[in-house]
Amino acid sequence: MAMTVTPEQVERIVWNQHHDPFEVLGPHAVENESQPAWVVRAYQPSADAVWVVFPEQRAEYPMQVTHHPHFFECTIEGAELSNYQFRLKEGEHERFIYDPYAFRSPYLTEFDIHLFAEGNHHRIYEKMGAHLTEMNGIKGVYFAVWAPNARSASVLGDFNDWDGRKHQMRKLDGGIWDLFIPEVGVSDRYKYEIKNQDGHIYEKSDPYGFQQEARPKTASIITNLDTYTWKDDEWMAQRRHAEP
Prior knowledge:
This protein is mainly β. It has 3 helices and 16 strands.
């Protein structure tokens, strides 16, 4: 099957200039000689070679370099596509990761975005920021940040070597950018990389983050509030007797 992505599309991903990386990366339903198939694409800046791996079926498909040394694509026959991983060869090392662009998160709904735009979402902290969740049976973290004037936004963290090319976010209505990243978890540090309209790049801590590093460090820390042990009993008791 011929390549299905243009050099211009690849260039926008490579330079982190795409408002919706899902349009290019991840799985896309196609027809191959009138038969249903899937094209899977990946941009892995640190990888020399990539395979699509289906652990349950014990199947593996090599990806082909397309238009750029670190942009990969392959075609997989079939009408259905189950959860898959990438096997990455990075120098002498290999590792397996799930493809974040195979997960289109419904975590932030259109109604959430509508209320947020009105300034009437009174529990927006439950949607924005970094939230532990599960999609298609895979645990990970959903990230959402408001950056209405940004040209692009990415998640940086311990889990991607602080490389803004690896987890590029998509832009939703209302200037919100989001992405679900599989297998990220509690205690991982992260920031957002925001590129403005002039092309200047800034690293930002999460304004909705539940935990932050102590100064002078500025990273946010993924936290599970459901299991967090609060240590402010004395302060809460004093507050009850304070003047309003």
